[in-house]
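quick one before i forget lol
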Amino acid sequence: SIAAEGYAIGRDNNQVIFVKYAAPGDVVDVKIVKKKKNFQEGQIIRYQHKSEQRVEPFCPYFTHCGGCKWQHMPYESQLEFKQQQVIDAMERIGGIQGFEVVPILGSEKIQAYRNKLELTFSERAWVIDYVKGEDKPRPRALGFHIPGQFSQLLDIEACYLMPDYVNQIQRSVKAFCDNRGVSFHDIQRHEGLMRNIMFRCNEKNEWMIVVAFYENDTEIIEAVMSHIKDNFDRVVSLNYIVNAKMNDSMQGCEVIHYSGAPYLTESLGNYNFIIQPLSFFQTNTQQAKRLYDITKDFAGLTGVENVYDLYTGTGSIAIYVSEGAKNLVGIEYVEVAIEDAKINASNNGVENATFYAGDMKDVLTETLFEKHGNPDVIITDPPREGMHPDVVERINQSGAKRIVYVSCNPATQARDIKAMQEHYRLVKMQPVDMFPHTHHVENVALLERI
């Protein structure tokens, strides 16, 4: 069968063995690479018989870059497994029964569906057939980290998860740097200029680029940025950062606007949103709208409700449901995101929303309820780790009639809903596939007060 995190499950002498890149129905020889008390992990070393559920992966880097662990399975099978994964989490982790499951909503696009991608530079590429100690020098890389080997980079010619324009740009930038002798970063030695390049695009096929440099080498920075500006007219927002940190994360770095607009704009339904270079925005735009439609439907707003949107991000869900609410309160940990939420609300003429920045357990208090009124409906869309126990308890005591819980991690969602069982009943849920060919799945759950 299929397990969480992209593994398949086999058994040997009643012990569970987790195997990557296997499919139900495969008969394989497996090398055990990890042994625990209750399970083992293995790698396929030989196929005795390949499952009829297998399809040919469309990407030549499958099993190497680690991004799409389910390319070898038909999309219909992926959806079946994802839906069962959500049900299993709710029943086994949450101990919950008797809820309705609306069939999973698959993605219309299963390639080129992403609107964001980040690639990393490295002076030495990870090579599939490299032999340690051989004299042949390794090529340089612009690509993805090898799973479990963060310092190793796989050079790629193309990624099929974003429109092909991304591949034209990244290959051109790499060739330009190769021809000019511009150094790539070595994350172990912490030297070399080119670190990362992030791409965003919208449904109008407009593009944003953020290039990360290790040092403020103004001559090289100007050369690289002008090369992009002069050769790619769909890039409407061009930016860069100087990141001298010990890690590749762009968060916390100052974004320097080079040319074009300082942000992208995207439409979801009747609403327009600005996307700043380092802002969060749902990565599959078409599925995001459908996810928000389900959230809005589950919320059942009639125009008289007081709505709290927890983990609001840049306010996209709050704004999307705003016309059905009497008042809205949005809360988010990231201050910059709240500033974007306020701008987005203003740009869309949303006047019934108030936004707060801060740690959820510190902001969602009785004092806030006294100021804005107790919620009738709570929408919550937390990060993968789910909600803090104090937040769950505050929801339990809020008196809200309905909770709409949007989650990217069915396990922590089930845990949190279990902690609400004395106050709320799980009525129904609907999984949404935002990321085809991966094990990730979003799930929208509706809870009603008992």
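fyi The radius of gyration is 24 Å.
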